[in-house]
Design goal:
about 190 residues; alpha+beta
């Protein structure tokens, strides 16, 4: 106060409240914008494409065709890894006949003691809600990596799980795998 007038001193860098607003507001706006842009990228992806995929499990690689399934939103609730789904014909390629029968029994009984020796660290179960609204568990396998190719642009993903479909996904065998749409997000971002 000087002669009844309030006098302020300003350094030219703004007051503390303005900086507090910037420090709190900027990260919130950035997080919101990033989430929204990620959603837009995923929505722009064409979901009707069938893509070639290579999957490696225990250093054994299989080539197959996959369908981008916009309805597949299955993720492991603990690790937040997306789950792709492969049919029985593909999955059998990594196992002996006896091992495959044991894995089928594990899915039905959830008795993990039946998992073949040397495979126990590769398997998990993921809860999901079926079409009828019933809660169930899916047996999933951790691959070494998967490689997707879109318009001659390959991308390798190692943070993914493979859900086992005991049966055939496509009646005409045009694809053997249902891809999670968020796996394609990084490809779409790179090409944009």
């Amino acid at each position: 106060m000087s002669s009844g007038v309030i006098v302020t001193y300003q350094t030219g860098f703004g007051d503390g409240i303005s900086w507090l607003f910037v420090l709190i507001g900027f990260p919130i706006v950035w997080i919101f914008s990033k989430r929204r842009m990620d959603q837009l990228v995923v929505q722009k992806i064409k979901y009707d494409e069938i893509l070639p995929v290579s999957i490696s499990v225990n250093n054994h690689v299989q080539q197959l065709m996959s369908f981008v399934d916009s309805g597949n939103q299955l993720v492991d609730p603990i690790t937040k890894q997306p789950v792709i789904i492969c049919d029985e014909a593909v999955m059998k390629g990594w196992f002996k006949e006896e091992e495959w029968e044991n894995i089928h029994q594990v899915q039905q009984t959830l008795n993990f003691e039946l998992i073949p020796e040397g495979w126990t660290d590769k398997f998990r179960i993921v809860p999901y809600q079926g079409v009828g609204g019933t809660s169930q568990f899916m047996l999933v396998l951790k691959p070494d990596w998967i490689r997707l190719t879109i318009k001659d642009n390959p991308i390798t993903v190692d943070r993914v799980l493979i859900g086992i479909q005991f049966g055939q996904l496509s009646p005409d065998e045009s694809y053997q795998c249902l891809l999670h749409p968020h796996l394609l997000k990084s490809i779409a971002v790179d090409s944009a």
